[in-house]
Amino acid sequence: MSNIVEAKSLRKNYGNFTALDGVDLTVPRGAISGLIGPNGAGKTTTLKALIGLCDVDGELSVAGRDPRIARHKLMEDVCFVADVGILPKWLKVSQVIDYVEAVHPRFDRKKAEKFLSTTDIPKNKRIKDLSKGMVTQLHLSLVMAIEVQLLVLDEPTLGLDIIYRKEFYDRLLNDFYDGNRTIIISTHQVEEIEALLSHLVFINKGKIVLDSLMSDLPDTYAEVIVDVDKVAQADALQPIYIRDLLGKKSYTFESVPREQLEVLGELHTPSVADLFVAKLKEEKNG
Amino acid sequence: MDKFAVLQFYGLLKREVLEHKNLFIGAPTVVALLILVATTWVATQIDQNQLAEGLRYVSILFDGLSPFDMAPFFMLVAIPFYLTLYVCSVIYLINTLYQDRKEMSILFWQSMPVSNFQTVLSKIVAIVLVAPIFYVLIIFAMYLIAMVWLTILGISNDVDLVGIGWMFLAAIASLVLIYISAFVTSLWLLPSIGWLLLFSAFAKKTPLLWAGGVFILVGFLEDFVFGTQYLANWVASRTSDPNQYLIFEFQSVFERIFNYDTLFGIVVGSILIAGAVFMRRFTD
Amino acid sequence: MKDLILRNRYTLLIVTLVVYMSVLVAEGMVTGREVRAIEFENPYFDMNFNELEKFRERRSNDDDDDIRARFDDAGDV
C-alpha cells in the first residue's frame, strides 16, 4: 500500500464545538507532510486520531490498521512527540530509557544512548528538572532509536529557542529520515519547516483547505506584484487574496494560467506563510 | 510464554513501583520504624529483670513448636502494616488511572505499544502481588533487627537462645501467612478494586468523590427502583468482619479462595475492571 | 450500538454500572440474600492471652515429654 495514512470524512465533536468537520487526508509513504493551521483548527485532534488517542467518526487507516481498534499494535510502527512535555516528570532519564527498552520491541538502546551522548542531558536527573528543550531532545532521542514507519510530531518545537529548534529539525532530517519513513508535523511556525516538507496540508475550523505536493505549488499558486494601472485587470482574474505592499498591491491567484498573469507584473510563487494567510482569508470571505 | 511479553510486563510493574515508591516502600518503612522506636521505649520503661523473665518465658513457649503453628502470633504484629497497606491501596487505586491523565503523561504511555488491558492488569498485579512483597521484606528487616536485639538481651541474661531461634522461625513463617492473607483479601475485595479503578479512569476531577458519590447514588437508586438493598448489604457483608482480612491458618487458604462468595466477587469485580479497561480509551 | 457505548465516557460508565447492578440484584434474588454477613472462623481472635499455657498444651504433642519438662522447669525460675 502506498499510502500510510488514509482518512475519510473524519468527524469529532466536543460538546457543541466541532473539532473535525469531515477531514479527508492521505499521506503517502516516505512523505514529510506539514499540517498547518491556526490554534484550534483541529491539528492536534487530527494527529491524536491518527494514533488512536482520540475517538473519531469516519474511515481511518494508518499503516494498514484502524487506530481506534488496534492502538497498541499500531504503536509498534508509529511514534508520537507532542508539544507539551508528555514524558512523565517523576521519572529519571535513565528510567525512561529502561521503560521504553522494556515495552517497545523495536527500540535500540545503543542508538538512543548514542543520540543522548551528543546532548547535555544528565542521565541521573529527573525529567522535571530538565529544561523544556532538553525534554524535547530526550523524547526525540528515544523516538529516533525506534525503528518505526511513521513519526507524528505535534508542534514539537513550540516554546523552544532558535538553537534547539534548528538542531531538532537537522537531527530529524539527518538521523531519522531515510526516504522510506514518513513524518507528519503540525505547526503554526511555517517558515521553519517549509524547506523540509514534501507535502503541505492546511487545516482550518476542522476542514482541510489545502492538500498539495510542495512541488505542485508553483503550478497552482502564483503571487503577482501588480502595477497600479493594472489593478482592474487583476481583479477580473478572481484573485484569492489581495494585500497592500509598499504602495503596490500583491495578488495571489489559484489555478490561473501563467500567461495571463505574466502581463500583470512580477510573478513568483507565494511563500507558505503567505499562501496560508491567503487560503484562510479566502475561507473567511467564502 | 513469549519472553518479550514477560519482560514487557516486568517493565510495566517496575514503572508502578517507581511512581508509587511512597506507597509501596515509604509507608511500611515508617510503620516499621515507629514500631521499633515504640518497642524500644517500652523496653526501657520495664525493669530489666522482668524483661529477661518475659523473654525466658516466651523463649520456652516457642521452643520446639512448628513455626507454622506459632506464626499466627506474629499476625497481630502485622496488623498496623495491614491497615497501612489497606489505606495505601485505596490511594493507589483511585489515583493510578487518573494521575497520568491529569499530568498529560498518558499521551506518552499510550504512545507505547502497550494495550489498555495490559496497563490495567499491571496496576492490579502491582498493588495485589508486588506491594505486599515490599511490605513483607520490610517486616522481615524489622524482625531481623528485633532478633539481634533479643539475642543480645538473651545472652546477657542467660536465656536459652534456641527458643529465641524458634521464635524467629515462627516470625518468618508469619511472613508467608501475611503475604497470602494480603492476596486472598485482594480477591475478596476485587469488586472494590474494580470500582476504584473504574472511577479512576472515568473522572476528570476528584475521582474519589465520584467513586463515593455514585456508590451512594446507585444504592439509593436500587432501593428506589427495585426496593432492595443488595448493593448495601453486599458491601456491608464484605467489609464488616475483620476476620475476612486476616488468615491465621494455612489450612484455611483453599476454602477462603474457593468459596461461593469470593468467586462471585471475582466475577462481578471483573465486570468493573473490564469497564475500567474500556474507559482507558478516554485520554483526557 | 458498540460505538454508542464506547464513544462516550458517560454511556460507558452507565452501561458498566447497569451490568454490574443487574448481576448483583439477579444474584441477590436467586440466592435470597438478605443481610448475609459471612462468618469466618478465627479462633485466635477469641483467644485469651492469659491462657497461653493452655494454648501451648493444646498445641504441643503430649508425648513430647522433653519440651514439657523444660516448660515446667521454667515455671519455677
Structural features, described:
The complex is a heterotrimer of chains A (286), B (284) and C (77). Chain A is α/β, with parallel strands linked by helices and 286 residues long. Chain A is built from 11 helices and 13 strands. Chain A folds into 2 domains: 203 residues, 3-Layer(aba) Sandwich (Rossmann fold), CATH 3.40.50.300; 68 residues, Alpha-Beta Plaits (2-Layer Sandwich). In chain A, strand 11 and strand 12 form a beta hairpin. In chain A, helix 4 packs antiparallel against helix 5 and helix 5 packs parallel to helix 6. Chain B has 284 residues and is an all-alpha fold. Chain B has one domain. Helices cover 82% and strands 0% of the residues of chain B. In chain B, helix 2 packs antiparallel against helix 5, helix 5 packs parallel to helix 9 and helix 8 packs across helix 14. Chains B and C meet through helix 3, helix 11, helix 12 and helix 14 of B and helix 2, helix 3 and helix 4 of C.
Q: Top keywords for this entry?
A:
heterotrimer; A: 286 residues; alpha/beta; Rossmann fold; Alpha-Beta Plaits; 2 domains; six-stranded mixed β-sheet; four-stranded antiparallel β-sheet; 11 helices; 13 strands; B: 284 residues; mainly alpha; 14 helices; elongated
Q: Indicate the percent of residues in helices of chain B.
A: over 70%
Structural class of chain B: mainly alpha
Number of helices of chain B: 14
Mean pLDDT across the residues of chain B is 91
For the record, give the distance between the C-alpha atoms at the N and C termini of chain C, rounded to a whole number: 80 Å
Radius of gyration of chain C: 28 Å
Question: What oligomeric arrangement do these chains adopt?
Answer: heterotrimer
Q: How many domain modules of chain B?
A: 1
The structural class of chain C is mainly alpha
Distance between the termini of chain B: 34 Å
Strand residue content of chain C: under 5%
Outline of chain B:
elongated
In a nutshell, what does this entry contain?
With 286 residues, chain A is of the alpha/beta class.
Architecture blueprint of SSEs:
The complex is a heterotrimer of chains A (286), B (284) and C (77).
Chain A: E1 3-14, E2 17-28, E3 32-36, H1 43-50, E4 57-62, H2 71-74, E5 78-81, H3 93-103, H4 109-117, H5 132-144, E6 150-154, H6 162-176, E7 182-187, H7 190-193, E8 199-204, E9 207-213, H8 217-220, E10 221-226, H9 231-235, E11 241-245, E12 248-254, H10 258-262, E13 265-268, H11 272-285
Parallel strand pairs in A: 3-7, 3-8, 5-6, 6-7
Antiparallel strand pairs in A: 1-2, 1-4, 8-9, 10-12, 10-13, 11-12
Helix pairs in contact in A: 4-5, 5-6
Chain B: H1 3-19, H2 21-45, H3 48-62, H4 67-70, H5 72-96, H6 99-102, H7 106-110, H8 116-156, H9 161-188, H10 190-202, H11 207-226, H12 230-239, H13 253-257, H14 260-279
Helix pairs in contact in B: 1-8, 2-5, 2-8, 3-9, 5-8, 5-9, 5-10, 8-9, 8-14, 10-11, 10-14
Chain C: H1 2-6, H2 9-31, H3 52-59, H4 65-76
